[in-house]
Amino acid sequence: MASGSRMEDGSVDIIQSVEDEPLLDAQLLPQHSLQAHFRPRFHPLPTILIANLLVVLHVVFVTLAFLTGVLCTFNNPNDDDKCPGNYTNPLKVQTVIILGKVILWILHVFLERYIQCHHSKVRNQGYNRIYRSTRHLKSLAFMIHSTGNTALLLILGLQHSFPEFSRLFLLLLLTTLGLELICSLAWLLLYAVKIGRFNRAKPQPDILEEEKLYAYPCSIPSETGFRTISSLEEVVEKQGDIIVCLKRHNALLSKRLLALTCPDLGAQM
Q1: pLDDT one-digit tens code per residue, 148-190
Q2: What is the pTM assigned to this prediction?
């Protein structure tokens, strides 16, 4: 009798605990609401527009530098490195060109920081492949302009020692600016093509793209052994990026779960 009463009391307690638990009576959360939040919305890289504007400014600067050099120096019989119409007064032609080049270099410093910032954000969102593939490309424009500045300093230093060849050194200066512009246009073409493909594709984070590949094993080429193209540093870096991405997605999913369950619990209470 005593054992029967204890079993009956235990079953009553279980039933009461089940009835008092609001989560068990709550409706199941719709899968699409969790999946839409777990798969974040794609944000394209906005760096192409700023890069295009700066390259257009670079083209305008080089064009004006060539026009100023040809009209004010090569057509000036006095050979005093000043425009006949005093357009650059009291500065000389080369001084105006160098000042413009310094301003353009400063703008490229801000461009490089702007590109680095947005690429870091993309990496934090889980797009590690585009970050690694543009690791050297995103700072190439800054390196081109820094190399051009070095060449201009060398030309100005030689001109200071040999002032009688001022027109020759101005020609070298304009040639350096032209080569720098060609390299900048080539960089913009490569960068715009790569980022444009990434923005048009609108891919999901790399970890989710890999889940797609492993979900359909027929699309994965069979390989024996290990791939030698990946160094240990790249493997470790990729694993670290995947861990950061998964932690971020887990945090977002937990917030979404709390946001969906709290209204249901409040309505039942």
Answers
A1: 999 999 998 888 888 888 788 888 999 999 999 999 999 999 9
A2: 0.67
